[in-house]
Amino acid sequence: ETGVTQTPRHLVMGMTNKKSLKCEQHLGHNAMYWYKQSAKKPLELMFVYSLEERVENNSVPSRFSPECPNSSHLFLHLHTLQPEDSALYLCASSQESVSGSSYNEQFFGPGTRLTVL
Amino acid sequence: AQSVSQHNHHVILSEAASLELGCNYSYGGTVNLFWYVQYPGQHLQLLLKYFSGDPLVKGIKGFEAEFIKSKFSFNLRKPSVQWSDTAEYFCAVNAENYGQNFVFGPGTRLSVLP
Question: Which residues contact B41 (CB under 8 A, 6 or more apart)?
Answer without folding.
Answer: none
